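Please complete every field before forwarding. Incomplete forms are returned to the sender.

SECTION A: IDENTIFIERS
Entry label: holo-489
Bound molecule: pyridoxal-5'-phosphate
Molecule representation: SMILES string

SECTION B: INPUTS
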Amino acid sequence: MLRSVAGQGEGGPLYEQVAAHVAGLIGKGTLRAGQRVPSVRRLSEQLDVSISTVLEAYRQLEVRGLIEARPQSGYYVRPDYLRRPHSGTTPPEPATRRLPLEPAPVECADRVMRVMLAARQRDLVPLGAAVPAPEFLPTAELGRHLARAARTFAAETTSYDFPPGSLALRQQVALRLIEAGLACGAEDVLITSGSTEAMMLALKAVTRPGDTVAVESPTYYGLLPLLEALGLEAVEVCTNPRTGMCVESLEALLARGPAVKVVVLMPSGHNPLGGIMPDEHKERIADLLGARGIAVIEDDTYGELAFQPRRPRCLKAFDRHGGAILCGSFSKTLAPGYRVGWIVPGKFRPEVQKLKLVLSLATASPTQQAVADYLASGAFERHLRRLRRVYQDQLALLAEGVARHFPEGTRATRPVGGHLLWVELPEGCDALALHDQALAEGVSIAPGPIFSATGRFGNCLRLNGAVLWSPAVDHALAVLGRLIRRQLG
Ligand SMILES: Cc1ncc(COP(=O)(O)O)c(C=O)c1O
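SECTION C: PREDICTED COMPLEX
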């Protein structure tokens, strides 16, 4: 009986008594951080309660942050660091500055590549690249779907899956986009090798060399080498950490030229700022561009990772002119190495489909099948709910760490989605130099200038929060703090 084991009195639902019993074991240190708690079946037998009672108790403990579910492995006591009550002390937010709105050729691929390659060095505390740690992803579960796909669809998975790609996956993507306010069918979706390829296809479909592209400032650094490779000019538009690209600045740019061919935006989860554009802004921008026949490419890579009950609506949902192209990916939610992304190209579909065939023939078949199978299993929604909580938690710890270790005058964003923190250091700091100094001490960061076509944000950096918080991460922030202070003299 529960009472005899746990020493609980009557009163309160049974699941609460079970939760209190397990919480007590954690509190006393009988179950320690990182340890597996008894399986649901075992505890139900031990305490003579039903499976559903134990499941509900574990759900309660998960919500309280005491334990976490690891797919196909069971429940574990969360590391002490994650259970530490948040101090709530975070740095103030960065300000947004108006920019001159002048187009310029993009010549930064070498700098971006150098930083990306340096981040591959072994044994780094990986605060640079926006790559989720494998422990946050349903790696084992996905692996089983991959094996099943290879077994069950041997012919399909060893053959080319020509554009538009797997029908089963396109159906699942279209289903998920209903939540984003988009009523599209499988026939509107094309599968790509990540959103990088989706963006390349979109840009190539709507531009010619020499055209001007309006981008957010700061923007995702992977976009800039694409612009450079296509011979495009970039004009940077100031971007608010909370609300995204400044609509007034965009209006001013369109009113007095130069001729902008396309605008690239991340309205539903910005990298690196972590903001979400309000629906009114999305609608204004969709109307503004649609009325002028200017295309918009929406990078929705973080769209499923907003810390709010409903997934944000995409800008394309407000597009009445058909000029919006939506690009997405499973890289931040499932597995970056699977290289599965998608594009909803709207009226540019024939051109995009042709380009996809010309440039890569097909996306790898086994991972398309595996992701389709995983999505159809219904596990994704549960995984996402947990992932958003984990990312939010990790970001809070990261921001507190920055407040603890970085010098006064440091500012940081308050992300409402994703897993990235943008940090503005006091004037006089050199983030590119800091990048090299930090690497030499085993810490990677993403320096601010790679997020700008013209090397702005010299005193800013981006930190990846999708790394399990640990004493090593805390120490890495202390190292950065020391290096920053040394720069300030
Ligand atoms: C905003 C944004 N877009 C696109 C990508 C590239 O994603 P994928 O792995 O799907 O090519 C990333 C990866 O960091 C990203 O942050």
